[in-house]
Design goal:
about 30% helix, four-stranded antiparallel sheet, alpha+beta, about 30% strand, 7 helices, seven-stranded mixed sheet, about 260 residues
Amino acid sequence: MKRAQSGTTLRSMLCWALLLPLAVLVMTGCFRIEVAFLVNDDGSGAVKYTVAVSDQFTAMMEAEGMDAEEGSLVEEEDLPPGAEVREYSEDGYTGVVFTVPFTDYAELNSIMQSVDETNQEGGVGLDPPDISQDENGDWRFSMLMPAASEDDGSEDLLGMDALFEELLADGWFRVRVRLPGELAEHNADRVENGELVWQIGLDSTEERQLTARATSGGGLSIVAIGAAAGVVVIALVAVAVLFFTRRGSSGRAAS
């Protein structure tokens, strides 16, 4: 098990992520989050969620004498079918990359149902996207990013800029999308190796509609993949944290 710079376990560090509202963590640079929807020509693909917490933030919290919550344990059968979890450690951030593959809409819908209970406990409140193939065979992506809410805890950051200034530059929240075919139009901030990337600012006072269209070279017509995909991704952070909680507990018992 990799450890953060302060010596805390990955499990403890991730539990810290549950103690503050998601918007607060991202806005202060304490979190790195990327939600990725990767769709293949035949409609199969993967939903990938990356979540990492600043090692410096974890050390700062522990220096204040605050202990991370234990969290709940999860059985392996509670993980989505075919799910893969690997550790993330980069630039002073430690966390997990959680990937769930799907072959078609029916399987993805089944995955969504299998983690629905976990999603109710740990969802982050994002509306699911719409990813579908239109009558012309073109793939379309649409996702609404809500404006910052006055009740999300962001107001608590007023007057704390100096405390989090060093952390602010390194945190981010991104949405990444790969659609089959050739990109025809989009409003992404950039394109990386054919994948659209939107850099999201959760302190924005205006909603942001993410859109893209790709001309298809064929493939299976699957409608509303994103409706299920979004729910799955929203659940991934909760399942990932619980998964590593269980691993951390097992490791200590074995030692």
